[in-house]
Amino acid sequence: MTSQDDTRQKIINAAKERFAHYGYGKTTMADLADDTQMSPGNLYRYFPGKLDIAEEIAREASIRTAEQLSRILTRPGRSASERLHDFLFEDLRETFQTLERDPKLVEMAQIITAERPHFHNEGQKREREVLRRIVEYGNVSGEFSVADPEFVAEMIQSATLKFSYPQLFTRLPLARLERELEGVFQILVAGLKAGVSISEPHRDVVEA
Amino acid sequence: MTSQDDTRQKIINAAKERFAHYGYGKTTMADLADDTQMSPGNLYRYFPGKLDIAEEIAREASIRTAEQLSRILTRPGRSASERLHDFLFEDLRETFQTLERDPKLVEMAQIITAERPHFHNEGQKREREVLRRIVEYGNVSGEFSVADPEFVAEMIQSATLKFSYPQLFTRLPLARLERELEGVFQILVAGLKAGVSISEPHRDVVEA
DNA sequence: GGAATGAATAATCAACGAATCGTTCAATCG
DNA sequence: CGATTGAACGATTCGTTGATTATTCATTCC
User: What Rg do the C-alpha atoms of chain A give, in angstroms?
Assistant: First the structure.
């Protein structure tokens, strides 16, 4: 890690602190400059702009979540459907707890998602990769019968969309969401076990 | 229909015209009063307020959609899974086409949903009733094996949420949405055929 | 001479007063 | 005397203006 990387990380740490406490909008580049003992103009040697600093913070959190979820893949004694269950519920609980613990960081992530669609798509892609491997494991173990794991992973994301977007469940208590997710999960797993033969005809590379 | 009902319908027709053309916000009570040859104050003898007029328009549209979807229940020669397919795709196409034909009425419906949560819940409930009967028909015909059709209908709605909310798919073309819905549909139907034994433990009467 | 500053610039935001609008109701109409 | 009007009133929205902030870059520092 070069000294330039050190400075970038210093800016990110300062920004994370500010964004979590005051929110993205209430934090100024002057604030971040003060916190990092440099001039406002100098911040632009390390990041293209304010939004890029926020995006980096959100990306780090997203990567951490995906890494955490990928540990499900190596849990001993867990069947594919149990791993899928772990994935969906831990993802929901993580999102719900982040909303309660750091509401302003969630608000920041929503701003990034609105301004930088690719950021959200990348996050979805990371999680979908873990889902794909769970579905493949199900195929290998004989529990699932899925022709196209990649496509089915995408379908699982589509079917559980409601539990990934804070703004779609803010008014609901966690227990209620878990009950509903359990219901959707049961139908999905029954379907995966029974066998899904379809696949994506001409997969689009870019999601909107 | 009394003369008071006549006047209410006259107001609704005028409002629908204005809301569709200019939008909810750009339409004033003075406009509606002019269109119906009465004073602004008189409108309040027929409706509690402006939002109530809009809600009535949205409710009529919602009821019409549910009635249209309920005709799926009596199509001869259609299996339960074919009916479920018909339901999901006709609902999506209807929503998509309404968005293209009357974007300002969709915007109005979003305002109602935000201000009057019960309106949206009622709409969901109407459609869920049709879904429940499709699932029950599947049970009776032996195609499905579902313990609690009411709960599963709710789960189907949850799993296909993305295709019911214009703001969640605005940037996607219809063909892409249909392909994705087909994928989710295949997994759901495979699950319903395989059998879903769970049910809602203590069903909440009120959705958020 | 590359790194950094901090003021200038352009863009955006917030406050404020004016204008508009949803709703109410005293006065008038029929 | 019930139905209706249309102006008043309080609430909300909008346009303008000053303040603030993201970003740039001429100048200075090391």
Answer: 20
